[in-house]
Amino acid sequence: MDDKFLYQNRPPVRSGFGENLYARISKVPSQNGISVNASRFLLRSALIMVLLFTVLFTFSQPVRASVLHWLREIAGFEIEERDSLPTAVSEGSLPSDYHKNLLEDVIDLLPYELALPAYVPEGFLAENRVEKTGNLIFMSWMNGDGDEILMQVDTDHGQRYVTGTDAAREIEVNDQPAMLVQGGYDSNNVWDDNLKMLNIVQRKDDAIYWLIYIERSDGEFDREAIQNELIHMMSSLGN
Amino acid sequence: MEKTSKSMAIAENMDWREVYDHLLPRLFHYFFYKIGDQFLAEELTAITFEKAWTSREKYKPDLGAFQFWLFGIAQKVAADHFRKNKNEIPLDAVNPPSSQKVEKEIESKADAERLASILKILPERERSLISLKYGAELNNREIARQTGLSESNVGTILFRAVTKLRKKWEQIDGR
Questions:
Q1: Is residue B150 part of a domain?
Q2: Is the pTM of this model over 0.80?
Q3: How far apart are CA A44 and CA A61, in angstroms?
Q4: How many domains is chain A partitioned into structurally?
Q5: Which of A64, A79, A151, A162 has its CA 20 to 30 A from that of B71?
Q6: Could you give the ipTM of this predicted complex?
Q7: Which residues of chain A lie closer than 8 angstroms to B130, CB-CB?
Q8: Residue A206, number of CB atoms within 10 A of its CB
Q9: Which residue of A has its CA nearest to B50?
């Protein structure tokens, strides 16, 4: 007996079974919405835009003067409240250099010690690739309904977060302050409190961890349950 | 090599019928080696595809991510099945069927059925890895990512499991 034997002695799939199953699943429409890759590209584009805005704020006195009254501090994070973003982010094609990495290939390149969650909500599976842009890293977990939890980690360099008005509040995770944000910017870059998104941001050691829950499935968005799951996941980092 | 070139060709075109035809036997064989029963393997294959198919467009054009996600769902479907039918599987925590009883059953069976029966004597983890390797046709690196084990650990466990299978097969064949 060898490897070949183990491959050769598998029973064939009955053709009737294969055809019937395909006919059945073909009737089920694929969930609408942008692809996983494209949605991450959108999110990344939005983050880059926020960074650009921060640069503008730092070096342009007129811009700084116009936004100062929107600034608040929550859980030690500086946030800027805006009901819409100044520039539209369109869903273009993925950039030619778009690629993902294996975690083990990039983990040693980060200037901080990456803490991984010991707890992930039931049904969510880790994707085997991560995205790295500079010191910023994206990881993803997804369930069978296409709902996704993204974890973004970056160095703490005084970045400012842009949210809708009164969308952010302070909570505690592991007795430490954290910021909870409900809602998100829609495809027109207008803030929507009812968008099925929930974010928790917290400092840990010399990095900032941002957990983002995106629900794509139909049905009611149970904010409280999701918030508890995200808090549980955040509190398990590095355990 | 044939498997790799086919996967790449599919990834470029993302013809979902072709993706289905490519993954169906691998998923079915995964469940066959995992469960040891053809009809149950069909049932669990159907459940897994039904769960995965609704979100397929989100993985376009990344076949690797879709495959990873599909076999992740398959592992959960198998675990749910075993949880509901605890008597059907030899989990590590559960006593495996006695060797003598299994051997008697095996003697009168065709090769494929014999193999499935011998697999029942393996501990759950070894059987899972055999299912992923020889059923799902994943390589050791993919199995490591899918299970959270290290690649070298996967290789060691598989080597041990195949050695056990071979020994048992030869023992029965030599009678």
A1: yes
A2: no
A3: 27
A4: 1
A5: A151
A6: 0.74
A7: 6
A8: 10
A9: A25
